[in-house]
Amino acid sequence: MEELIDDATVVITKLVSNAANHSRLSSIRVIISRPCEDRIRLGVVDRSTSLPMMRTDSNGEQICGRGLLIVDALTELWGTELYRWGKQVWGEMRVEDAA
Hints:
This protein is an alpha+beta fold. The chain has one domain (2-94): Histidine kinase-like ATPase, C-terminal domain (Heat Shock Protein 90), CATH 3.30.565.10. Helix content is 26%, strand content 30%.
């Protein structure tokens, strides 16, 4: 999975940054799992029930707000699982040599 390290680092950094900026409590949880043999899932759980929104505008001078665009570009699939008390935002990446 070494080929995923750089992209996975960027994805988890963006997810953690979003959670730190938008959640209601001072703690978050990072979850890394292997839902199937050829995928890795990177997730961040926080206590906010607000759904993340991917910006589609391209204001070149804007510093913030592009995190989910980057997550979308680097993952094959991403999404949100809502819980009664918060949510998990996750992205899945394909492992090339999963044999």
